[in-house]
Amino acid sequence: DKYRREIVPTKRFSTQKVNLRELSKLEEYFGDPPAKLSDIKPQIYSVFVITKLNKLFQIHDTAAEAMKTFA
Length: 71
Hints:
This protein is mainly α. Helix content is 56%, strand content 8%. The chain has four helices and two strands; from the N terminus they run ααβαβα. The protein has helices at residues 2-7, 13-30, 42-51, 63-68, and strands at residues 36-38, 58-60. The protein has a two-stranded parallel ribbon. The longest helix is centred in the first third of the chain and has 18 residues, at 13-30. The model has no long low-confidence stretch (mean pLDDT 87).
């Protein structure tokens, strides 16, 4: 929701349409609440930051940290 509300509107209209379609597919696959990701390599994380996907997923340093958030 936050990505859809805050990031998508800042993009060109054609990009917004594509992003909204992609978001729907991601939400369908990963569910709601968003998937928790962990142990992401720094190079991959930088791609998440550039594309602002880090705002879409809950990203943790380790799987143990991610698992604690399920409680």
